[in-house]
Amino acid sequence: MTHGDGRRALVTGGAGLIGSHIVDQLLREGWRVRILDNLEPQTHKHGKPAWVPSQAAWSEADIRDRAAVTAALQDIDVVFHQAAYGGYMPDISKYVAVNSFGTAQLLEIIRDDNLPIKKVVVASSQAVYSEGAAICPQHGQVAPPTRPLAQLQSGDWQVRCPTCGAVASPTATPEEMPIGGETVYAITKVDQERLALTWGRQTGIPTVALRYSCTYGPRQSIFNPYTGVIAIFSTRLLAGQPPVLYEDGEQTRDMCFVEDIARANLLVASTDALDGLPVNVGSGVATTIRTMAAMVAEALGIRIEPVAHGEFRPGEMRHLCSNTARIQAIGYQPQVDLLAGIERYLAWIRTQGDIRDYFAAAEAILRTKRIVQQVQSHG
Ligand SMILES: NC(=O)c1ccc[n+]([C@@H]2O[C@H](COP(=O)([O-])OP(=O)(O)OC[C@H]3O[C@@H](n4cnc5c(N)ncnc54)[C@H](O)[C@@H]3O)[C@@H](O)[C@H]2O)c1
Ligand SMILES: [Zn+2]
Predict the structure, then answer these.
(1) What proportion of the chain, given as a percentage, has pLDDT over 90?
(2) How far, in Å, from the CA of 85 to the mean position of ligand 1?
(3) Residue 379: is its pLDDT beyond 50?
(4) pLDDT tens-place string over residues 158-182
(5) What is the 3-class SS of the chain, one letter each residue?
(6) Nearest Cα to 148, choosing from 372, 314, 373, 310?
(7) Residue ranges lining ligand 1, Cβ < 6 Å
(8) Cα four-point dihedral sign 118, 214, 211, 373
């Protein structure tokens, strides 16, 4: 007998990168699965992707559509809420409408209609941390605030101790760190997480918020120039263009292969050990953005060096690597390291036909909206 044992799941955003891998794993484990996804055009340029399995019930609808969400929630045991508007898009109100409002309404429907949902797992993000944890030589582990705009404009990328101002070095970030991201996306991920966990406490319905680190892998949109560093570097290089590094390229991220993120979802659905908590999910390994560019170029056999134009994105964290002790305690171990994961992504991308660079045009827009800014020279 399989673990799922006929349990019924709703995966919102189930056509996307993470959602579609959750769907596959659920089906493999014997769950009955329904997907609600509006096929956001930024992500799904050519409509419904071929990887959406026919064994899953399909509802093409917007998470903001109350009637559609109500219908999709009928006869469901566990909700894996992945649908969201992501990345560094210039919108403001759409993030709040899709991510904050969409989540609020989903929770409200479950409560008001007394639906017998047994668990809600909501996709949060490491973006909820304004900056990763750091070690000050004097004060030990500290929680640095977002670096001020004026500092970034002067080309100073360092993270400093909030107490003494000394340069602090990065360390793995535990869930207890203060949250409060300073991009529009991050603000709405904080909303989603807090709405869900607070609602869970008040209704008594077990709820978990998984704070994913940077996720990549097969099915990551090759059309969306606003999100996914591995996807963007890959499509740039395949189009003969150099990857663009923000800041100096020495900032670090925790890159996690999509199947590992999906498995964490099934794991927290199978135990009550982490109910009510925010939970980091990642690889626990910090990699610089410059190293990622080199790894992708090497794997592709393309000798194009990345470029750094002294640009930065206000509000972006310098370093973030997740401390994953909490989820490891229930048996989670990432299985695919970055090198193997990049190979898996590139093998998939080669099956996707013509690769174009959408980044150059997007970047021009981001500059005019001040989402990407330039160091100010003092001549
Ligand atoms: N990819 C990452 O690095 C990462 C990191 C942290 C958190 N997350 C979170 O994980 C979740 C899944 O992200 P992903 O990487 O799979 O992104 P994705 O864009 O590949 O998938 C999101 C899916 O949601 C759908 N969607 C978007 N807006 C919708 C709406 N209004 N109504 C219904 N469906 C809608 C899209 O069509 C898409 O299929 C999101 O909540 C995201 O914020 C992702
Ligand atoms: Zn200090």
Answers:
(1) 82
(2) 6
(3) no
(4) 999 999 999 999 999 999 999 988 8
(5) CCCCCCCEEEEECCCCHHHHHHHHHHHHCCCEEEEEECCCCCCCCCCCCCCCCCCCEEEECCCCCHHHHHHHCCCCCEEEECCCCCCCCCCCHHHHHHHHHHHHHHHHHHHHCCCCCCEEEEEEEHHHCCCCCEEECCCEEECCCCCCHHHHHCCCCCCECCCCCCECEECCECCCCCCCCCCHHHHHHHHHHHHHHHHHHHHCCCEEEEEECEEECCCCCCCCCCCCHHHHHHHHHHCCCCCEECCCCCCEEEEEEHHHHHHHHHHHHCCCCCCCCEEEECCCCEEEHHHHHHHHHHHHCCCCCCEECCEECCCCCCEECECCHHHHCCCCCCCCCHHHHHHHHHHHHCCCCCCCCCHHHHHHHHHHCCCCEECCCCC
(6) 314
(7) 13, 15-19, 37-40, 43-44, 62-64, 82-86, 98, 123, 125, 212, 214-215, 221
(8) negative
Q: How far is the CA of 318 from the centre of ligand 2 (A)?
A: 17
Q: What pLDDT shows up at residue 2?
A: 52
Q: Per-residue pLDDT tens for 218-238? A: 999 887 766 789 999 998 999
- Residue in the structure block whose two tokens are 């090198």: 339
Domains in the chain with CATH codes: 8-133+172-374 (3.40.50.720)
pTM above 0.90, yes or no: yes
